[in-house]
Amino acid sequence: MRTPALLLIGAMYLWAQPAPAPIPASQRMVIIVSLDGLPAYALEDPRYPMPTLRRLIREGASVERVTTTNPAFTWPSHTSMLTGLWPAKHGVLYNGLPVRSADSKEPVRIEPHSDKSVLVQATTLYDLAHQAGLTVGHVDWVAIEHAPTVDWEFTEWGNPSGPIEKDLIAAGKLKPADLAGFDKRSMTLRDQVWTAAALDIICKHKPNLMLFHPLNLDHTHHRYGAMSEASETAAAFEDDRLKEILDTVEASDLRDRTTLIVLSDHGFKNPTKTIRPNVVLKAAGIQGAFAVPEGGSAQIYITDPARRDELIPKVKAALANAEGIAKIMDRTDYPALGLPDPLKNPRMGDLFVAAKDGYAFGAGSEGEPVVTSAPYGSHGYLNTDPDMDAIFVAWGYGIRRGAHLDRAAVVDVGPTVAALLGLKMGKIDGHCLTALLQ
Question: Does the pLDDT at position 251 exceed 90?
């Protein structure tokens, strides 16, 4: 009969104990792992082979579905994560910088090698961390080239003279010859090397903010389609990379002061038909208007501003009669899409076109306007398409175990991670997911 009393005394003793002192931000670490191209619907299938990620969901906090950017694309989404802003404000619309030629007869091209200071038109989370005296590392993150507020990095292309590359060579995990044409190596090999680089930075330098972006799952989805057998193999492979990071954290003195965030940037669809909008425009005899395809969407640029009012109605009429096009939008629609006004930001196209289900936009100005192919993977659709929904999982220091939200947005990532690091973002579109934090 004394047991209940003892339990009560024990409970009162525990209640009387002071809460553990918070760990100073300078001693914390937040690791963000972005599993490029992991759709929310994949994790809803219990057979999808990602046991490590499912463990983190059980032991941590999660958001079931995350709304991504318009378009649902890698660089815009990742930039929205770390600025808390939609593309209308941060200006990243492609996997690179759209460049207009001085010749109105030339199409807009996408330049992938652009300095972060030019490409990103907003302050990022890693900029704020640096300003606060915190340290930052990244491996294969995007829209971050030559960022002066990053302390350690291993880029998508690799740098033979880089200190992290030299660490891996000295440890026998990388050969100097491997860095020759590194961006042309198999994606599985690159993900393995990138993981080794991330672990080197985590263990040796202990950055307060670590950004890691493996690519094999996205690469596989593009080639073979989402939820294919190849997709499951790629998912299991990425889960093993995640396990390497988790195992390393748990086996070190980082365990009690590290937060692990696992997220994705967009989902995937498997179209069977490809629309070639530049073939459509050419067939209609329209000159001075060019399409830049982005999978499930395309932007149309009038390359001679003096002809904008003349050509926009003609382009709309030509595209309205084209197979596979669901919607044609102009600058009056852009505010609701989180996209900039092309009259104020020339990076944005004059028209934004969305594909129907089963279709995607492709390049080329010759041949048939629509071609049929074997199923492949594509994204870039409107973010209202549930197939584009991404994920968010948080585990470790500062996370409320068992917390769950049905919906959030990529712009909520930055302010949530900022709170974990004792930082505060300025005027942004997102908000901190306080329900997931202790």
Answer: yes
